[in-house]
Structures are given as structure tokens and as C-alpha cells.
Design goal:
With about 450 residues, this protein is of the alpha+beta class. The chain has four domains: about 110 residues, Beta Polymerase, domain 2 (2-Layer Sandwich); about 100 residues, Hydrophobic Seed Protein (Orthogonal Bundle); about 150 residues, Hypothetical protein af1432, CATH 1.10.3210.10; about 50 residues. Helices cover about 50% and strands about 5% of the residues. The chain has 23 helices and seven strands. It has a five-stranded mixed sheet with strand order 1-2-5-4-3. A two-stranded antiparallel ribbon has the order 6-7. It is elongated, with a radius of gyration of 34 Å.
Length: about 450
């Protein structure tokens, strides 16, 4: 073994004894290069930064580019490169086998061709590393997309984020590479790394992002419960819409009223996930009774799997659990109970987005919006269906404290929803008189 490689191995051992990784890049190739060259230079890869190296080797000097440090000892020169520490790297290419200096040396050497070495060169981390400039108007991986993905499979999720946030199309060859690599993305990219990218997607663009996850088949492995909604339909019509299509539409409309609400938009993604478990055909209809209650339980399991913290899980599950409340024409009692719920403005906007997604009627929604103002009025200020004179005529009693008691009881019955019409109010007064023997 040439002396420069022996010295390089000694440097690596020093680094490793201090708790870091280090190795000679392409040791066998180095040995062959040293045999055909007078240049005693060896390239080393390590995950120790320049400050740490300077603590071990005070005479080391910083450098720019992929080679971030250089050290001279006698006639030998050692170049240091940053190690690939990404969890999402392909295992077969994450170990550096070649550097720019070695490429030049191979080009000058006639003994063996450049192709004997692996074409991977360590590079400093960069968000846009591996991508062509986005100002071209398209999201495109550099070089051969499949090979570029192998170096870091998290680029697949990043490509979808770029396409969603910047409203850019994905170049055809890049798209096919993403679809082909969907299984490997899930194998090599951790859930935490996926969610780190997901959290960078703006609320207004999240519907695009999840649709891209679905189209690349990544969602099918990441959250199969949501992907399965594409095979659940709410009607038997020929032009029927799947629950998944409806979900994406709700996510698109929700930020129109509450922009930048990332968690509210995410809740829209899960609001109908319970329909996968509650769908049932009854006669000519397909029903999803209690899908909101079941969906909250399903969403909790999924969100825990996606590494959301407890507060985030509780918030999203709360919105899923109560998202159906505002869809029904609420009474005084119902609107008061609704307004007592946490996050009720978000629940209103989920209901509005649902109507927009279905191009539905606003009858119940508009009624409830008007009732919201009524919920702010104190109960004692609401008028009963019958005034004092009407109560006296119906009950056949004279003016006195009894009239006030009947009026207050009637008002409470109206607030609770037990009395909703004048006829019911008349019957209530008669029952009250009989029961209390007025």
C-alpha cells in the first residue's frame, strides 16, 4: 500500500476515534492512480465539519466547493469532502467513489478508462440540488432523472412541493421517474422527512400537492386510507364523483375564505376519510352515517403515524368530528351549542367549502349564518311565539304572575327546540295550565 494512503488511513482513524465517520474515497482506485502519477494526493470523505477537523489537525486549511478542507503533511496532500448523511440516499451510491480531482487524473491516465469509477461526487447540501433552474418554467431533475433520484429520494417529494407551490408542470421524463420510484421513495425517505417537505406547502396549494402525491402513487403507500377514497362513490350516477375528488375540491375552496390556514386545509383532507368505513348501500341510496365520528378516529391513527404532535392531532380530529354540525338547519338551541364549540369559524368554512365543492344549495347554510347573530342575544331578550294577551286568552286566566311564568317557560321551550310553531306553542300553554292547575 502506498505511503500516502497509509497516512490517509491514519487520519481517518483519528477522526473515527473522536466519534465521526471517515474513509479514503475509492481506496483501490487511489492506489492505481498513485502508481501512475507522482502526485501524492489522497481524497478523504468525512461527516466532521471544518471546525472539528481544525481541532484535530490545527494546520488544516479551509477550501471552497465540494472539497471543503485541505491538509499537507510532508509530501502528501489530503483533500476532505463532505460525507452523504441523508437518510433518503440510495444505499448503493451514498458512498463516494470519485472526486473532481480523481476525474482529471483518470482523464490523463492511459492505463485504464474513466468508466472504471462510480460517477458519484460528494456535493454540499442545497435545496435545489439535483434540479434544473426553476426559471425555465418547469420542474425537472438534472441529468438522467432516475439516476438523480437515486442519490436522494427525498428529491421526489421536493419536486412535488416545487410543482405545487410555484404552479409549475413537471417535465415528462422527471414525472415518469417519480412514478417509477414511488415505492423506493417510501422505502428510503422517512415519514419525518416527507412531513418536513409537506409543511412547506402553502395552504392554498395543498390540494395540488396531495393530488400529485396521489398521481405518483406515493399517497397509496403513505396513507392508503385516503387513496382508497378514489374508489368510493356517493351516488350511482354516470357522472358520479369519488370521495377523493370531492375531498380535493374542498381543500381547494377552503382557503378562499380563510387563507393561510394550514391546519384547517389539512382537516379538509381528512374530513371524509370515515366514508371508507361507513359506506353502505341502502335501497337506491348510498349512505355514510356517522362518517364524521368514525373519521375522527381514523384521522387520529393516521396523524400519529405521520408524526404530528398531540396538539395538532387533537385540533384536526376535532374539526373532522364536528364538521357536519353546520350542514343542518339549526335551531336556537342548536346554534348555541355549535357556537360553543372550539374552532367554530373553521367548521363554518369547511361547510362552505363542502357546498362549493358540490355546487350545492346554501339554504341551510344561510339560515345558520343568520342564526349566529341570534345566538349572541341573551335568552331573556328573545321573544316567545305568543305574547301575554294571547297566553291569557288561550289559558283563560287573568293578568298576574302566572302569565309571566308561562311566557318564560314557553321561551325556554323555544330555545331548546321543543316548540317551533304557533300551534305547538298553544298546546304548550294548555299543557302548562293543566299540569300546574292554574
Amino acid at each position: 500500500m502506498p505511503q500516502p494512503i497509509r497516512d490517509a488511513a491514519s487520519l481517518c482513524k483519528t477522526i473515527m476515534r473522536n466519534g465521526y465517520d471517515a474513509y479514503v474515497i475509492g481506496a483501490a482506485l487511489h492506489e492505481r492512480l498513485l502508481a501512475h502519477s507522482k502526485d501524492a494526493t489522497v481524497d478523504i470523505c468525512t461527516d466532521l465539519d471544518i471546525d472539528g477537523l481544525r481541532g484535530l489537525f490545527p494546520e488544516i486549511k479551509a477550501a471552497d466547493g465540494p472539497m471543503f478542507a485541505t491538509l499537507t503533511q510532508g509530501e502528501s496532500i489530503f483533500h476532505f469532502y463532505a460525507a452523504d448523511v441523508l437518510d433518503a440516499s440510495h444505499p448503493e451510491v451514498c458512498v463516494a467513489q470519485l472526486t473532481p480531482r480523481m476525474i482529471l487524473a483518470l482523464q490523463e491516465c492511459e492505463e485504464f478508462p474513466l468508466s472504471v469509477a462510480c460517477p458519484y461526487i460528494p456535493q454540499p447540501r442545497d435545496t435545489y440540488d439535483g434540479f434544473e433552474p426553476l426559471d425555465r418554467g418547469v420542474v425537472q431533475l438534472k441529468g438522467i432523472p432516475d439516476e438523480t433520484l437515486k442519490h436522494d429520494y427525498s428529491r421526489a417529494i421536493r419536486a412535488l412541493r416545487f410543482a405545487a407551490n410555484y404552479h409549475l408542470p413537471i417535465e415528462d421524463n422527471t414525472w415518469m421517474a417519480l412514478v417509477r420510484a414511488s415505492r423506493r421513495v417510501l422505502d428510503y425517505v422517512s415519514v419525518t422527512d416527507i412531513m418536513d417537505e409537506w409543511r412547506k406547502v402553502e395552504a392554498e396549494n395543498m390540494w395540488r400537492f396531495v393530488q400529485l402525491l396521489f398521481d405518483t402513487m406515493i399517497l397509496h403507500g403513505l396513507v392508503p386510507e385516503l387513496a382508497a377514497l378514489s374508489r368510493i362513490f356517493e351516488t350511482n350516477d354516470e357522472d358520479r364523483t369519488s370521495v377523493w375528488q370531492h375531498t380535493v375540491a374542498v381543500m381547494r375552496h377552503y382557503p378562499e375564505e380563510l387563507p393561510y390556514d394550514w391546519y384547517g386545509t389539512l382537516a379538509c383532507l381528512f374530513h371524509d376519510c370515515g366514508k371508507l368505513y361507513t359506506g353502505e348501500r341502502v335501497g337506491e341510496r348510498i349512505t355514510f352515517y356517522q362518517h364524521h365520528r368514525v373519521g375522527a378516529k381514523v384521522a387520529r391513527k393516521i396523524l400519529k403515524r405521520l408524526r404530528f404532535n398531540t396538539d395538532e392531532v387533537d385540533l384536526i380530529c376535532h374539526l373532522v368530528r364536528h364538521h357536519m354540525h353546520f350542514h343542518f338547519m339549526l335551531t336556537d338551541k342548536g346554534i348555541r351549542r355549535f357556537k360553543a364549540l372550539d374552532e367554530y369559524p373553521r367548521l363554518i368554512e369547511i361547510a362552505r367549502a363542502n357546498i362549493k365543492a358540490r355546487d350545492g344549495a346554501y339554504t341551510e347554510f344561510n339560515h345558520n349564518m343568520k342564526m349566529l347573530d341570534r345566538a349572541d342575544i341573551r335568552e331573556e331578550l328573545l321573544e316567545p311565539l305568543l305574547n301575554g294577551k294571547q297566553i291569557m286568552d288561550i289559558a283563560g286566566i287573568k293578568p298576574g304572575p302566572a302569565v309571566g311564568l308561562i311566557r318564560d317557560s314557553l321561551l325556554q321551550a323555544q330555545i331548546s327546540g321543543d316548540v317551533t310553531t304557533v300551534d305547538e306553542a298553544v298546546q304548550f300553554v294548555l299543557r302548562y295550565k293543566e299540569h300546574n292547575r292554574l
